[in-house]
Amino acid sequence: MKLKTLILAGAMSVASGAAWAACSFENTVPLKSLSAGFEAWKAVTDAMAECGNFSASLDQEFREKQPEAFAANPALYQIGGVSNATLVPLLNAGTIRPLDDLVAKYGQDLLPNQLIKVDGQTMAVAMMVNAQHLMYRSDILADLGIAEPKTYADVLAAAEKIKEAGVVEYPLGGTFKTGWNLGQEFVNMYLGEGGEFFAEGNMPAINNEQGVRALETLKAMTAYMDPEYLVSDSTYVQQQFQQGKIAMANLWASRAAAMNDEAESQVVGKVKMAAAPMGSAAPATTIWWDGMVLAKNMSDEEADAAFRVMMEGIDAEMVQANNDVAVWLHPAYTPGELAAGAAASAEAGAKPYPASGPMGIMHTALGNGLADYLTGAKDAQTTLADIEADYLTAAKEAGLVSN
Amino acid sequence: MNFRTFAAFVGPSVFMMLLFIAFPLISVFKQSFYVTQPIYETVEVETCTPGFLTQTCVTEEKSIPKLDEHGEIITQTRFVGLESYRNVLEPERAWRAISEGSWSVLSAINFWKALRFTLTFTLITLPLVVGFGLAIAIVINNAAQAIRGPVIFVSLLPFIITPVIGALSINWLFRGDGVLTAMLEWWLNRDIALFAQAWTIELLMMLYRVWHVAPFAAIVFYAGLQTVNQDSLESAVIDGASRWQRLKYIVIPHLMPLIIFVSMIHLMDAYRVFEEIVGFSSQGYVISLQWLTYDFLVPDQAGNRSISRASASAMLTMVGIVILLIAPLRRTWRDHKGGH
Fold first, then answer.
1. A296 in contact with chain B, both atoms CB, cutoff 8 A
2. Out of A227, A346, A364, whose CB is closest to B300?
3. Phi then psi for A120, rounded to 5 degrees?
4. pLDDT for residue B32 is more than 50
5. How confident is the model at residue B153 (pLDDT cuts 50, 70, 90)?
6. pLDDT for residue A119
7. How many CA atoms lie within 13 A of A211 on its CB side?
């Protein structure tokens, strides 16, 4: 499958070099973009390349390069791919430009909810949303007479039944890898319990009842997971699903298509997408968006061309050709079964990821500190207190909390 | 050699050392006493993000860094003395843990947890690397001339492999239902999860390091073996010394300077253990000092990084290496003086 994609990609880039068939105008300004490297970005940048004079860097380390590259004058990349979290450093440094005039000129096809507004100014154009939601093996749950789990209590009860029946190796999968992934799991649970991360003056506020409940749920889940859960990331969980080793997991919507990839998956058509399980206040998940920004340090002509190329990248043609790759924000997108989970989570009231400077530090502190609770080295309160202390040290050093 | 010639030969090297080693080191040393941070102001911001069909807009207080007229973030640098060191070492908490005799509390502090692993790792792998290196060297030395080349090549292979790649391949061989774990499970007829507790991961890391570095020790010792005085060996045989006695009384004393050399290199390398942590993604269980420095340096998604604490932790790592090297260095110094 990999080889086929490569050949296809090669063929496409040759085709796009030769003729700009699928692009409505011929771009003459040299443009570059820097973004993450997952499937959706590949589809979008390929469509952008059809306009000519465009080269894309798809880089997993983009978040380290972007702030510096955009601060340069002229900027090293004209177009940047960001998510709600990676937008923060660019916004703080003031290296991206407001897009309102360009949206008025070329953005007729954009939906109002694609415009990311900060203080009334459009700073980014979102192209897709992503969220973690419940995926489960409909065949296994039906065989055992288990209804679709709606809450984490349901998930744990179902896991117990599946364990007793012994039909899969581990009832649950989870993206519990120490670091960003594990931090994200806590963020999901804590928001699901209705918790707030910060008090006045960026002070941490996670050592409370909701925090303890979130921790307890996470720990209860680990009993049904592969004991090596602290090294399991999204790709690992995706493979566990594909190889029929797990029956349920809260996994990213962007991984849904892989379940039905016949070249990799042994469970084609058997994995059903559902809303993220409810915490006591909201679905235990966060909504993320991915989109594009334009650098401030470039000429207006370049910005004009960059915006038009950007619009070509997220036009109806691209969305129709790559419908199942992501949950696109576009009128031409037809939400299939694969998008049902993300949509249902949003309908049930899932919150957007609360991206901010302090949240970046909090996420890191959580990702590094939670493992001690899961392995039993610390109790819940000590873990949360230590994470708060860790956050405070880093936030003081960053100047976000006054001494 | 007159001074001018000497200076002409040594000059470029001294210049490079100053430029690429001494100055960065001084800069890191200085940074560990200062903190540079943006000046934040709290403003109310309305942010709109996409939901389904409609937008979700929230108005909240946010800390935004102030920009100057050129659009650069205004930063201020202030002297904080030993604060960054205190933040890394957490002396009050550590002292409380020690006076209570509670190891679990002490090991909850990142620095001490990392120090514990780094020291265990360094001190356990050291004798193993020297021992296996010597063994491999003797095997090569005793191999028939015809197969000596291929034997050297094969035994050097682990050393040629890029460390991160090597660590990753061991990781994949043993992780989950990796080939070797599956084999062990079949052989022992029980479920094995090598990445589910700290000690198995540590064991795998040490195994990997010894496997990776022993060939280097071996090749150095092999070179040393070529210069062992054959007359002494022959007279020892005539005196009826066993193989073991010849090794103990003639070969090892002869190789001693090389053993100290290899030990010093290994102490320096192993104390900076890093690839294993990344390759085995063991952060949840085990971290090392070098990894701690790296973790302070990596920006989070909002772009924050802890340069001051990273500098302090880097300086502390260097101090640790210097302390470890004191013993072998003193020995070389003594031997050197005694030799004249």
1. yes
2. A364
3. 85, -15
4. yes
5. confident
6. 84
7. 22
> E strands within A74-188?
79-83, 115-118, 121-137, 170-173
Distance from the Cα of A163 to chain B's closest Cα (Å) equals: 16
Q: Which domain holds residue A157?
A: 131-286+345-398
What's the confidence (pLDDT) of residue B52?
Answer: 61
Mark whether A310 and A251 lie in a shared domain: no
Q: Which residue has the tokens 């002494």?
A: B232
Parts of chain A with a pLDDT under 70 = 1-21, 403
Same domain, A272 and A320: no
pLDDT of residue B51: 65
Q: Which of B118, B122, B121 is nearest to B263 (CA)?
A: B122
Residue A73 covered by a domain: yes
CA atoms within 13 A on the CB side of A134: 26
Task: Decide if A65 touches B, using CB distance below 8 A.
Answer: no
Question: Where would I find the H helices in B18-162?
Answer: 23-31, 83-89, 91-100, 103-106, 110-142, 145-160
A residues 21..50 contacting B (CB < 8 A): none
pLDDT band at B30 (very low <50, low <70, confident <90, very high): very high
Which one of B35, B62, B284 has the shortest CB-CB distance to A230?
B284
The per-residue pLDDT for B157 is: 87
Whether residue B340 has pLDDT greater than 70: no
Residues in B touching A177 (Cβ below 8 Å): 281, 284
Using the beta-carbon criterion (under 8 Å), do B193 and A228 form an inter-chain contact? yes
Q: What is the pLDDT of residue B53?
A: 58
Q: If you measure CA to CA, which chain B residue comes closest to A127?
A: B50
Nearest beta carbon to residue A116 from set B40, B48, B283: B48
In a shared domain, residues A274 and A351: yes
The shortest CB-CB distance from A117 to any of B48, B62, B64 is to B48
Whether the per-residue pLDDT at B128 is higher than 80: the answer is yes
What is the number of structural domains in chain A? 2
Using a CB-CB distance cutoff of 8 angstroms, which residues of chain A are in contact with residue B73? 92-94
- Looking at residue A394, the DSSP 8-state letter turns out to be H
- The answer on A212 and A141 residing in a single domain is yes
What is the rounded CA–CA span in Å between residue B293 and residue A251?
31
Q: How confident is the model at residue B190 (pLDDT cuts 50, 70, 90)?
A: confident
Q: Is residue A4 part of a domain?
A: no
Last residue of a domain, one of A268, A298, A326: A326
Q: Is residue B170 very low, low, confident or very high in pLDDT (cuts 50, 70, 90)?
A: confident
Structural domains of chain B ordered from first start: 32-81 (no CATH), 103-338 (1.10.3720.10)
| Cβ neighbours of A129 in B, within 8 Å | 50, 52
Shortest Cα–Cα distance, B35 to chain A (Å) = 7
* Mean pLDDT (chain B, rounded): 88
B3-23 pLDDT, tens per residue? 899 999 999 999 999 999 999
| Res A1: pLDDT | 42
Is there a single domain that holds both residue A97 and residue A177?
no
3-state SS, one letter per residue, for B231-253 = HHHHHHHHCCCCHHHHHHHHHHH
- Chain B CB contacts of A398 under 8 Å are 37-38, 304, 306
Identify the residue whose tokens are 């939906």: A111
The nearest CA of chain A is from the CA of B56 a distance in Å of: 8
Q: What is the 3-state secondary structure (H, E, C) of A113-132?
A: HHEEEECCEEEEEEEEEEEE
Q: Is residue A80 part of a domain?
A: yes
Pair (A200, A59) in one structural domain: no
Contact B71 A95 (CB under 8 A): yes
Does B333 score more than 50 pLDDT?
A: yes
Q: Evaluate whether residue A7 is within a structural domain.
A: no
Which of the listed residues A326, A353, A377 is the one where a domain comes to its end? A326
| Same domain as A358, residue A281 | yes
Same domain, A313 and A276: no
- Specify the pLDDT at position B225: 92
d(CA B84, CA A397): 9
Q: Give the per-residue pLDDT at A20.
A: 43
CATH number for the domain harbouring residue A50: 3.40.190.10
Judged by CB atoms closer than 8 Å, whether chains meet at B71 and A296 is answered as yes
Q: B63 to chain A: which residues are within 8 Å by CB?
A: 202, 356-358, 400
